[in-house]
Please model this.
Amino acid sequence: MSNQDTHLPTSLYPFLAYQKNSFMMRRILNEEYVPRSASSPLLFRKPENICRYVGQTLPTMWKEKYSFSEEWRKRIEANINSFGLELRVIKDVDTPGVKAFLDRRYPSEIASEICAFDLWRFRKFGHGVILLNAKDEIMGTIFELGYDTMDKTSFTIRMAVDESLKGNNLGYHLMIYSSLLAMEQGSRVKRGIIQVENIRSLYINLNKVGWICDSLIPQITGLGTFFEIALPLDPMGLTANVIDQRSLIQYIQSHKMNMDFLLIHPEDTHRMRQVYAETDFKICAVVKPGGLDEQYWLFALPASSLQLDPHFQ
Model:
């Protein structure tokens, strides 16, 4: 990664260069909800010195979330089109195709977790987003339901991309698109669960999108051990929490292990349970092989370093 990539926000988010009054503004639900202070994050903020640089563009857009979201979604749609794919929300007619994709993509016991009724609920009370190829075959999915919790939760389920499309960053684009739709619909925080063994999904969501693992579920009967993950749905939450791998390594090398941060092996579930039960450290990034050594590591910071609001913990 070049220094230029790290310090030019428009290379990451080219729509940030738009003029303040270029778009028609639309009211976004729950706009009365604001952070504790002008300098406080909506839910959490990873330290700037381990994240991609965004700069001062976004704070001026705090009340322009719809324009921010609309423009980013247009960019995502254009990117998806460049692969010969189409991205759109699900319709009733898509039910057989969605079921066929899930049957193709997952073992039967997992594919059967989503039925036709679930797809109707997603359309009615949330959304589903799919990727279609030139033959109108579904090649990717993500589903969401909104809940009237204190933080207006948007819950994500079954984000998947066909294995033939692996390596094109499409999972990232699906997740961001769903997050933007949820933000427009009034959700404040996106939540979901990830199996602790799914290092690939953890890397995409924690490093590329910006989530944190805010809690650990030691055992869901019949399913396994999961992280509960959370992401603030506001412009800063969606852009300022993206990990810069080089900066993350520098942070590790210049700070104290077991005091400023923790490194946990992805297979050490005993240590994960201990950390979440006995400390306030939260896993917020993944160190890729080649960074410190030739294996993956889960990186955790204390709640104070993440500016976590106790109100939401």
Summary: Residues 1-11, 15-33 have pLDDT under 50 and may be disordered. The CA atoms of residues 63 and 256 lie 38 Å apart.
